[in-house]
Predict the structure.
Amino acid sequence: MHSTFGTSRLVRLLGHWTPVEADRSGLDFAERTSLWVGPLEAIRLQAAQQPVQAPPAADRKPPTAAATIRALDEDFRRVHGVLARAIGQDPLALANLQAGDPDIGYAPFRHRHLELQRQMEPMASALRDHLRQTMRRLSPRLRELAELDAALEDVLAVRGQKLLATTVARLERRFRQLLPTGPGDPGAAGPPGHWLHAFGEDWRNALLAELDLRLLPAAGLLDAVRNEHLQQA
């Protein structure tokens, strides 16, 4: 299994702007991930893969699978939409600054990036948990997958957050790359703040890519629900 993380749009963007040493280990995603997991975590993951009993049927008639999928789709789109709109806001405008103002530093972008990460993390996690709660009620197979995903999230969460935290510093490097060093710098050509508009586009694209990456587990769970419905149809 190869990593969608390693080939994600976020990794490609950051690697293009601030190249890092390539992984020469030859390990695929599952093998690399196993290096993050200690003995106790491995036991927890193994326990999560044990067959589970189907939950007791509810007294009231449950919604149809198609209705459930539509509701989950709407939940996913709503979370993505709220966060994408937040990313679309101009960090300079939020800080009462303009691109042409002299001596603009990276601080407004850093502050906004950290603020957005504080919004993305709990919303993505809550959506993922909501999907798992729904899956536990749908079928034994989806319930098993939900239990495994919960264990994976718990085991890998700290490492994942540490990796995503590095995006702030990498975007600051991109800012420094584009920052004109003097009147003769090509970046200084054009209207005042032109280079800053270009960086703003890069910054937003990176944040949208980070959002997609954070929502990737939830998207995978949603696909699993759809596939289960198709197989039972």
Notes: Residues 140-178 form the longest helix (39 residues). Confidence is low (pLDDT under 50) at residues 1-5, 21-25, 27-36. The CA atoms of residues 190 and 207 lie 26 Å apart.
